[in-house]
Design goal:
Layout lengths: L1 E8 L2 E11 L2 E2 L5 E4 L8 H13 L8 E5 L2 H13 L5 E13 L5 E13 L7 E2 L4 H30 L12 H6 L1
Parallel strand pairs: 1-5, 5-6
Antiparallel strand pairs: 1-2, 2-3, 2-4, 6-7, 7-8
Length: 182
């Protein structure tokens, strides 16, 4: 199983992550990080498209299941990439969303303040809840949370490197010692 997540703030320092679980355990040697190269604005769908296209372009070591962190939009992006590359793999979207209460007449009343994970499946209009199957839900949450942790860690690494960048770094023949001295 592979899970994908995107991390950025307003499109800056955008990165993607891929985590791999085999037999319910993380396979950290198979994790991959992606620096977003073709998208400069904050467009989660385009970033997900880039990451998945780069990952599946090789067409090797295909997983049994692809999980994308997000709802219908991210799921449709994943399906589009796989369709374009003529790859047949099961794909789901996993999104954390606030639960909304409806009145007996079907009128939206209020949000409960509780977040629940929803599973989005291809060719299914509404999401499903896995709260009735806690072990399956826990497994998917663990995979998604690991992808999120891995993406966020890479994002912070890239951001810190760019925050510490000096204009003197771009001047030829100025080494680190002189740059620090100036």
């Amino acid at each position: 199983m592979e899970c994908y997540d995107i991390s950025n703030i307003s499109g800056k320092h955008a990165v993607g992550s891929m985590v791999v679980f085999q037999n319910g355990e993380p396979d950290k040697s198979s994790y991959r990080r992606f620096r977003i190269k073709t998208v400069s604005e904050s467009d989660d769908y385009a970033m997900m498209f880039e990451v998945l296209s780069r990952r599946f372009a090789r067409g090797e070591n295909l997983p049994d299941l692809v999980v994308v962190d997000g709802g219908k939009g991210q799921l449709n992006v994943a399906l589009s990439v796989l369709r374009d590359l003529k790859i047949k793999i099961d794909v789901i979207g996993l999104a954390k969303e606030e639960r909304v209460i409806f009145s007996s007449k079907g009128v939206r009343r209020k949000k409960t303040g509780k977040s629940e994970d929803r599973i989005y499946l291809p060719r299914r209009k509404d999401a499903i809840y896995l709260s009735a199957w806690p072990p399956a839900l826990r497994m998917l949450q663990q995979v998604r949370d690991e992808a999120h942790r891995f993406a966020l860690g890479y994002y912070h690494q890239i951001k810190q490197k760019n925050d510490l960048h000096s204009i003197l770094d771009d001047v030829p023949d100025i080494g680190e010692a002189r740059r620090i001295y100036c």
